[in-house]
Amino acid sequence: MITCCRTIRNSYCRVLVICLTLFTFFGVEAYALDNRFGVISPYWQSDSTSYSFIAVTHPSLSTMASQIGVKINVLKNDTTAFTTAASFTVSAGTTQRVFIVRTGHSIINPTIIPSAVFIAGTTDYSYGNIRIEPIATNPLLITGTASDAFAVGKGNNEGYRDVTMLSFFGAIVFDSATTGFAMEFIGDTHDSSDIYDAWVGLNKVGVSGVN
Predict the structure, then answer these.
(1) Which residues contact 161 (CB under 8 A, 6 or more apart)?
(2) What Cα–Cα distance (Å) separates residue 13 from each residue in 1, 23, 141, 154?
(3) How much is the mean pLDDT over the chain?
(4) Given pLDDT bands bounded at 50, 70 and 90, which one contains residue 167?
(5) Is 209 a domain residue?
(6) Residues 6 or more apart from 108 whose CB is under 8 A from it?
(7) Same domain, 41 and 18
(8) Alpha carbon of 42 to those of 57, 66, 134, 158: distances in Å?
């Protein structure tokens, strides 16, 4: 009888371990990010006394498309989404402000700062990581008209629509004193290496819209 119970218990444990492994695997895969053209920030937070701020700058490098579409996923520490991902386009020479903030903030909101992007969620204390990816389906290929294979930098939005060529700056801000600490971004233009082949640009690909 004891042996039978042990066998049943061991079987349940095996099933539980398998289920947890599958859950973890599929949970990670759901938000998988190709490190060739993705940017991550290991920490953000938001609650009733703090929020996170991100500045996304297009530095107008010669091989960049003049407009680059960006998608920001803000994930909590349990890998679930803080709220719906934000998507926007950054144009050459401009900076887009992004706020990760509690819903109903009295000062940091779309009414007072209409030009900013807001990722608003629960008022409860939340923290986690941020995953930033391109909207373009093929960011490693030059986009544009196939008739001009060397059109990069000619002002027709030719170039790479790659978010790793953008510059990111961020901070965790505490409301009471408007002070805080800086956020880290891994994979942006500050620490990215050149992964482009000189002839990749010949294989152009069309991408819908400007992003």
Answers:
(1) 65, 67, 68, 69, 134, 135, 136, 139, 143, 207, 211
(2) 18, 15, 48, 62
(3) 78
(4) very high
(5) no
(6) 51, 99, 101, 118
(7) no
(8) 19, 28, 18, 32
Task: Let me know whether 83 and 6 are in one domain.
Answer: no
Q: Which domain holds residue 5?
A: 1-30
Residue 202's pLDDT band, with cuts at 50, 70 and 90, is: very low
∠184-34-20 over CA atoms, to 5°? Answer: 90
The residue to which tokens 């010669």 are assigned = 62
Residue 46 · residue 52 · CB < 8 Å: yes
Residue type, 10: N
In a shared domain, residues 26 and 129: no
Do 164 and 63 fall within a single domain? yes
> Does a structural domain hold residue 210?
no
Specify the amino acid at residue 115.
S
DSSP state letters, 25-47: HHHHHHT---TTS-EEEEEEEES
pLDDT digit string, tens, across residues 129-164: 999 999 998 888 887 644 444 554 455 568 999 999
pLDDT in tens, 19-40: 433 343 344 444 566 667 799 9
The count of structural domains within the chain is 2
The H or E element containing residue 191 is none
Of 63, 186, 50, 187, the residue nearest 127 (C-alpha): 50
- In a shared domain, residues 170 and 107: yes
89, pLDDT greater than 50: yes
Per-residue pLDDT at 143: 74
